[in-house]
């Protein structure tokens, strides 16, 4: 009688426990621990102060609920401060976006030497964070009435820029100072978008007989405009909330909302901390709308650039 073969024994391997995570801990749990410093920082230095400002905007000096602080925002001096701040922010954002876009395009597709792009990106990363008192001092030492460039122009060209009406401690001077960090920030934001333009799009348009202008008009710019517009709005919000540079450069000679807010919180002249909270609430609304629109436009652009 033939001996039947026994069925093969199937050995089920025991699941191996990863040495990276203790029992009961998942990768998500460890990821939450890793991101917890950022969450704590956001709560302590963003959400809680914002909530404190919003509550204070609807309180009087005795802690009672009131709409008086918001009504006081309609004062001519305050409205003028908001309007000047909006003008300076818009001027520096538009000029920074135009110049920064050309620099980014030149670095990405302008056929320049290879070392220029990393040098430009490194400088942009540093310059976009250079603000406050050091930036104000740098411009005073360069374009002030006794600054280096002012002195050299007078000595070698016989030309005094201040004779033309230019004043560093003015609307034009502050806008020019803001451009120092606005232009590099535009370069940093727009360069990845330019890198996302696919070479196949350019080749396809050339095969179909499109000129360079037609390619940018009908292909590249429709893809890039959400990034460009969104970056411009981000530059607007960036300059609208700047206070250290403006205060160090112009002091109280220029009536912008950040300096007015600083004076109210610190206690200068007509001290009213709750009115300062209302001023800050108005700034939060304006910058919040700008940032929200930027995020929406960026999401539209990323769908094309993926």
In short:
With 306 residues, this protein is mostly helical. Helix content is 71%, strand content 0%. InterPro entries: MetI-like, MetI-like_sf.
In which range does the helix fraction lie? over 70%
Question: What structural class results from the helix and strand content?
Answer: mainly alpha
- From the spread of the alpha carbons, the general shape counts as globular
Query: Which consecutive residue ranges, at least 5 long each, have pLDDT under 50?
Result: none
Pfam families: BPD_transp_1 (PF00528)
Organism: Pseudoxanthobacter soli DSM 19599
Protein name: Putative spermidine/putrescine transport system permease protein
Subcellular location: Cell membrane
Folded structure, characterized:
With 306 residues, the protein is mainly α. The protein has one domain: MetI-like fold (Orthogonal Bundle). Helices cover 71% and strands 0% of the residues. The protein is built from twelve helices and no strands. It has helices at 27-57, 68-72, 76-109, 116-127, 133-143, 148-157, 171-195, 199-207, 212-240, 244-250, 257-266, 273-305. Helix 5 runs parallel beside helix 10 (244-250). The chain starts with 26 loop residues before the first helix and ends with a helix. Belongs to the binding-protein-dependent transport system permease family. CysTW subfamily. Residues 82-296 form the ABC transmembrane type-1 domain. Pfam families: BPD_transp_1 (PF00528).
Task: Summarize the topology.
Elements: H1 27-57, H2 68-72, H3 76-109, H4 116-127, H5 133-143, H6 148-157, H7 171-195, H8 199-207, H9 212-240, H10 244-250, H11 257-266, H12 273-305
Helix pairs in contact: 1-12, 3-7, 3-9, 4-7, 5-10, 7-9, 8-9, 9-12, 11-12
């Amino acid at each position: 009688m033939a001996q039947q073969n026994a069925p093969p024994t199937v050995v089920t391997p025991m699941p191996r426990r990863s040495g990276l995570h203790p029992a009961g801990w998942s990768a998500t749990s460890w990821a939450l621990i890793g991101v917890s410093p950022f969450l704590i920082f956001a709560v302590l230095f963003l959400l809680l102060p914002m909530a404190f400002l919003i509550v204070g905007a609807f309180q009087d000096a005795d802690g009672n609920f009131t709409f008086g602080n918001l009504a006081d925002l309609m004062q001519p001096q305050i409205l003028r401060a908001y309007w000047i701040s909006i003008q300076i922010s818009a001027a520096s954002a538009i000029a920074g976006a135009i110049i920064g876009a050309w620099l980014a395009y030149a670095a990405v597709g302008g056929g320049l030497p290879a070392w220029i792009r990393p040098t430009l990106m490194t400088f942009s990363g540093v310059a976009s964070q250079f603000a406050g008192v050091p930036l104000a001092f740098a411009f005073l030492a360069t374009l002030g009435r006794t600054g280096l460039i002012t002195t050299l122009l007078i000595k070698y060209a016989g030309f005094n820029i201040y004779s033309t009406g230019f004043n560093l401690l003015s609307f034009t001077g502050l806008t020019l100072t803001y451009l120092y960090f606005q232009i590099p920030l535009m370069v940093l934001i727009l360069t990845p978008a330019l890198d996302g333009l696919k070479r196949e799009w350019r080749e396809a348009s050339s095969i179909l007989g499109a000129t360079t202008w037609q390619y940018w008009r009908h292909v590249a710019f429709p893809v890039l405009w959400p990034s460009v517009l969104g970056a411009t709005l981000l530059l607007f919000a960036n300059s609208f909330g700047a206070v250290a540079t403006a205060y160090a450069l112009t002091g109280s000679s220029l009536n912008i909302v950040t300096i007015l807010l600083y004076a109210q919180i610190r206690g200068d002249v007509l001290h009213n901390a709750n009115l300062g909270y209302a001023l800050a609430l108005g700034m939060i609304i304006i910058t919040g709308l700008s940032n929200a629109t930027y995020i929406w436009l960026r999401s539209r652009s990323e769908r094309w650039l993926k």
